[in-house]
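Write out structure tokens for Fumarate reductase cytochrome b subunit.
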Amino acid sequence: MTLPRPCAASAASPWPARLDLLQSLSGLALALFMWLHMGFVSAILISADFAWAVARFFEGYFFLPRPQAWLVTAFVASIALLFALHALLALRRFPADWRQYRIAARHGSRLRHGDTTLWFVQVATGFAMFFLAPVHLYAMFMHPDLIGPYESADRVWTGGFWPLYLALLFAVEVHGSVGLYRLAVKWGWFEGRDARTTRRRLKLAMWGLIAFLLTLGLTTLLAEIRMGIEHAPRAGERYVPTWQRSPTAVEEAR
């Protein structure tokens, strides 16, 4: 049977596939960025001086005549735009109303399939990130110069951001790791002769990645909280690296 012309044209449209590919690419880019971001913020675990150097690097401190905080603002804006694009594309897959959600939930409960459950996990964590991430992005966009050992610790503790960052940590790392797993399955990455074995190995890698990132993230957040508590009486003071302090100031810091 020949389909009516409008239906046939709609069925042959390449746009759903293009949007799907764009969603996958934007999600992959954000997941890889979050790995880098975790590395940047965890620099505090090495030393306060190293964390200061990482923060100043993004302002061009080491290769420009003067550091430029607007470089951080521009970078944050690009990440925010990528996040918004990915969210809009992902909304195509979200249940549009309560009825659709009930149908999807009933379907998932009947199947009892692990990957279907992971899809619901991504929906839940993505929904949480939709509200949590813009707060952090706005703070970084408006105050790019307040990134550093003392500055970040003051924001986490004195500024009361630690509950937000705790919730965001779990939402981001779970969402990103599950998303990478689902991308690998969807596009056939690392596919071997036995699809079930490949999927099992990918799932083990996913859980290992989640455990590693959450452990590193919680350790970093605790370090920020501890520094914030110690620095609370002098909240607002900028961090000065050891090599820029006077000998007297270094001795007092010890």
